[in-house]
Amino acid sequence: MPTFHLDDTPIEFEPGENILPAALRAGIEIPHYCYHPGLQVTAQCRQCLVEVTDMGNGHGIPKLQTSCSTPIADGMKVSATSEKAVWGQTVVNEFLLVNHPLDCPICDQAGECDLQNFAFKYGSGQSEMDYEKRVYGWREVGSFIVLERNRCIQCSRCERFSRDIVGSHDFGSFLRSHELTFDTFEDAQITHKFQGNLSDICPVGCIMNRDWRFKKRAWMLNKTRTVCPTCSTGCNVTIEHHDNRVFRIKPRENPEVNRWWMCDEGRLNYTYLNNRRDRILEPLARVKGELRSARWEAIYQAIGHRLQEIGAQGGQVLGLVDTHATNEELYLMRQLLREGFGSEALHFPYRLGAQQEQPPRPLADPFIFTLITTDKSPNTAGALKAGLIGDSDDKRLKAALKAPPKVAFVMGTPFVDDDGVRQAVAKAELIVHIGTFRSAWMELADVVLPGYTYAEKWGTFVNKADRVQRIQPAIKPPEDAEDPLRILASLLELLGNEQSHAAAREVFDAMGQQAGPFQGLSWDAVGELGTPLIGNGAPQASA
Amino acid sequence: MAEEKLLVLKNIRDPGYAGDLAAYRKTGGYTALKKVLQAMKPEEVVEAVKASGLRGRGGAGFSCGMKWGFMPPPGDKPHYLVCNADESEPGTFKDHLLMVGDPHMFVEGMIIGCFAMHSRHSYIYIRGESMYAIRRVQAAIDELYRNHLLGKNILGSGYDLDLTVHPGAGAYICGEETAMLDSLEGKRGLPRFKPPFPAQSGFDACPTTVNNVETLANVPFIINEGTEAFAALGTPNNTGTQAVCISGHLERPGVYEVEMGHNLESLIYEYAGGIRGGKLLKAVVPGGASADVLRADEIDIPYDFDSLTNAGTMRGSAAVMVFDEDTDMVEVAERTIRFFNHESCGQCTPCREGTFWIKNMIRQFLDDAGDEALMQRVDRAAGNIIGTTICAFGDAVGGPMQAFVRKFPEEFRKHFAS
Ligand SMILES: Cc1cc2nc3c(=O)[nH]c(=O)nc-3n(C[C@H](O)[C@H](O)[C@H](O)COP(=O)(O)O)c2cc1C
Ligand code: SF4
Ligand code: SF4
Ligand code: SF4
Ligand code: FES
Q: Which one of A147, A363, A425, B162 has the largest count of C-beta atoms within 10 Å of its C-beta?
């Protein structure tokens, strides 16, 4: 590969690549605002100025060049730290503050604001502007975002996103010179489903996430890298939380899955994580028709007794899971049925997803519209690959239910809206429910075991494109809840099955060593960006 | 009155000249086009223009022949020549005169240019406010279509060309060639960063050359009279004549055509009749508002591209603005920066914010609240716009603002806080 030098660092580059992306790839920061890897280059903020001391032919370029727009040539020598380059970056920074309100103390972007960071690094700390600044009011411009135009640095990322990525053309530039402003036409509201990305790409506090506004200082947030469970795409995200409360969800770059984007539905789908009111907080056992809190040991003992009483071994034992369960949970649930009861009757609601949104007009790259699918769960492909029983009309489940089960294990809320299924299952002598929030299943269950949400546990999902991706815990679960993997392992132990691996990593690595969809993979190989499945999804052999 | 050297204004100076096709033909009009279509290859035309030394009259003074030579050989994409008739540089009014007085001359040059650059359809982008020029040029184009000098098979040569007149919407920045191309495409006129240059990717991402009206008006002469006849005018590196727009506190402001290299002082005193009311000269802005101001003692220089560059300023669009002894140069600076602040397209941070900031600082002087530090700050802020922007507008505002405070510090000191 051809190479160029950025200050003292030799960097390999792809022919046609510009300086700034190559530098960022090599981990070297050159300050920049208008450049965004997902958007057309406009080279307008001028923040990324560098000095080209040698174009690769022994000659330098006398004028500073914007690194975002300057193609690299073999043997090129570039400096982002020469006196001249730093002069350029410093004066641009100073000009940016001419009309900026500097209201960081009340700006939500503070702490994660490029302008603030660069000004801190390059600024003189003094303002020589004692004139009236350009002033606009703030207002809500969409269901998701708030516009505070005083803070705008006119980088036009929002306009390019609206025009080229979502094709909505509803956010653009007005006026010119220092009055240049970005806004919607005639105060219209933005209605598309990707508004939150506007607040992500806005490098300052001009376009703000309305939901997050005034809630938390950004620097207090802890960030956990995980995957959105709101649809079968599984956009890579970070959960941002503090003091065991989730404050927002942001997309995490993954070129193979969601690039830099996510949808607003996924972004807003966190409030339930903070919900304790409807959460199942402790194990419950039905005593004289009523659910009462119980200790875990007592619960397991009781389940053991009941199973003996019923003589479940050999009888009809049914497992129902939804597609929010991780692959590891599905695997242990499968083992529980097989090893404990010799049953293969593990059913899931199989709902094939399709693209939900269409671009408003033809787009050169309609990628973002492929994100939202109609399957609002993260692991349908995982359940399918694992060979669980499912069809779009639940025909096979309904057939199985003609003979009422003796015991039913219900994890999550599968088929919860289907009265017929619920009534049939209700005939079982023992219903064990592993769940996180109150549901109709809880009302039917004899034993209720409080599990973890996706934000509290480790695990993997397989997305619509057969890519396996990891989730990891962001916040602490309620004190008396238990990791579903641990619950399933305990139930297996109860049935005399020695269970050694209850951690997701171990379960996954074990799956990786068997024939089946995960064969050849390991937890570490999946990594934080996921990996395509190698195995072709033959049902797993029992361990 | 001093004698002009007439080339592009030759017909216009004839009081009976009507400017229509018949009149133009009577003066030998469209013989150059005929010669080109019948006897020349496109490359030969490019070579001739190169050899003539013709430099662009729109502002930068770049070799016209070289620019035409940058156009790629004909390929699958159409080629365009866009005539820059936006003429918005303060103090400039020569293109207007050429378009209204003798529209066929530059259009003939343009058709020749289109032939040389393999264009089948090209545009004349005229400043929207110049309604009269738009009508005159459109009428000339209509005449050409009627007489088979445009459209299919021009003069039986097999060469087809369409020309379209496109009115601008009144933004100074649309005179900058790449902003003009955006505007022509129906977008907001925003200068593009380079590379790519228009010859690689211009209008509709196709190979494009942009030329000023006056530049093109010289082309028929070069073809008819020969490159040597043209190169014999002016000085070796600044050939031909130039239509100079002289305005301000003068007895006879107007457009005067002189050879390149003609003395600037002579232009002001002999052609434009000297300072109005016998007053003394204070300052000259020699090449449009984008050019650095000269003091009265700096004007005894040849008026051409290289000489003005050597004098630390530029010939620009040949707009000479003359200020007498009563002028407050701070007011001139304020009017200049107000214009630039108003016209900045706003893309680049230094230009967008710098013009606003400097305007405020200059106004502080007009409020008699200046001081030495403020003068230095104007100088520094202006210097920081130079070389840090997408288009030459940044340099064109930074340089002049620095020049005002550097060359006329005493004028600013009169506005210090007492
Ligand atoms: C801010 C700005 C404004 C300009 N305005 C004009 C104009 O009004 N007319 C013009 O001919 N050239 C103008 N130019 C120069 C053009 O960009 C371009 O160089 C010129 O039209 C090329 O033609 P020429 O080579 O024939 O001179 C302007 C340049 C800048 C940077
Ligand atoms: S609103 Fe934000 S993204 Fe849009 S131009 Fe302003 S700073 Fe840039
Ligand atoms: S597209 Fe799907 S996975 Fe992505 S953010 Fe939206 S709901 Fe989440
Ligand atoms: S220098 Fe000024 S006019 Fe030119 S592109 Fe930048 S902001 Fe626009
Ligand atoms: S990031 Fe390069 S000019 Fe804005």
A: A147
Total Cβ atoms within 10 A of residue B108: 27
Q: What is the CA B88 to chain-centroid distance, rounded? A: 9
Say what the pLDDT of residue B2 is.
85
- Residue B158 corresponds to which tokens in the numbers above? 């097999």
Assess whether pLDDT exceeds 70 at residue B352.
yes
Same-domain pairing of B108 and B59: yes
A69, A94, A175 member nearest B193 (Cβ) = A69
- What's the confidence (pLDDT) of residue A541? 40
A45 contact partners, CB below 8 Å, separation of at least 6? A32, A33, A34, A35, A92, A96, A153, A154, A155, B348, B349
**Cα-based angle A45, A48, A53 (whole degrees, multiple of 5):** 135
Q: Could you tell me if residue B183 is inside a domain?
A: yes
User: Is the Cβ–Cβ distance between B412 and B365 less than 8 Å?
Assistant: yes
Query: Which pLDDT band, with edges at 50, 70 and 90, does A502 fall under?
Result: confident
Architecture of domain A3-95: Roll (3.10)
Contact (Cβ atoms closer than 8 angstroms) between residue A461 and residue A469: yes
Question: Residues lining ligand 5, judged by CB closer than 6 Å?
Answer: A 32-35, 43-48, 66, 68
Task: Please tell me whether residue B239 adopts helix, strand or coil conformation.
Answer: strand
From A226, A252, A263, A373, give the residue whose CB has the most ligand 3 atoms within 8 Å, as the site to mutate.
A263
Q: Which residues line ligand 4 (CB under 6 A)?
A: B 173, 191, 344-348, 351-352, 389-391, 393-394
Q: Are residues B295 and B392 in the same domain?
A: no
Strand ranges in B109-197 using DSSP code E only, listed in sequence order: 121-126, 162-167
- Contact: B350, A156; criterion CB under 8 Å: no
CB A231 within 8 Å of CB A372: yes
CB contact under 8 A, B346 and A88: no
Which of B353, B361, B376 should be substituted to probe chain A, the one whose Cβ sees the most A Cβ atoms within 10 Å?
B353
Nearest to B348 among A41, A44, A128 (CB): A44
Confidence of residue B1 (pLDDT cuts 50, 70, 90): low
pLDDT at A170 over 70: yes
ipTM: 0.94
What distance in Å separates the CA atoms of residue B410 and residue B372, rounded to the nearest whole number?
Answer: 11
DSSP letter string, A507-526? HHHHHHTSSSTTTT--HHHH
Same domain (yes/no): B202, B81: yes
Q: What are phi and psi of B267, to 5 degrees?
A: -55, -45
Q: Tell me yes or no: is domain A284-532 CATH 3.40.50.740.
A: yes
**Helix ranges (DSSP H) in A336-386:** 341, 380-385
pTM of structure: 0.94
User: From the alpha carbon of A251, which atom of ligand 3 is closest?
Assistant: 5
- B175 CB under 6 A from ligand 1? yes
Burial (Cβ within 10 Å: 0-12, 13-18, ≥19) of residue A35: buried
Q: How many angstroms does the Cα of residue B198 sit away from the middle of ligand 4?
A: 17
Q: Are residues B68 and B190 in the same domain?
A: yes
Nearest to B341 among A63, A175, A177 (CB): A177
Query: What are B305-338's pLDDT values in tens digits?
Result: 999 999 999 999 999 999 999 999 999 999 999 9
B348, B394 contact by CB (below 8 A): yes
Q: Ligand 4, atom 6: nearest CA belongs to which residue?
A: B348
| 8 Å CB contact of B343 and A177 | yes
Work out whether strand B208-212 and strand B162-167 pair parallel, antiparallel, or are unpaired: unpaired
3-class SS at B129? Answer: coil
Q: Where are the domains of chain A?
A: 3-95, 284-532
Phi, psi of A160 (to 5 degrees): -65, -40
Q: Which residues contact B212 (CB under 8 A, 6 or more apart)?
A: B56, B57, B58, B59, B83, B84, B85, B95
pLDDT-derived band at B418 (thresholds 50, 70, 90) equals: confident
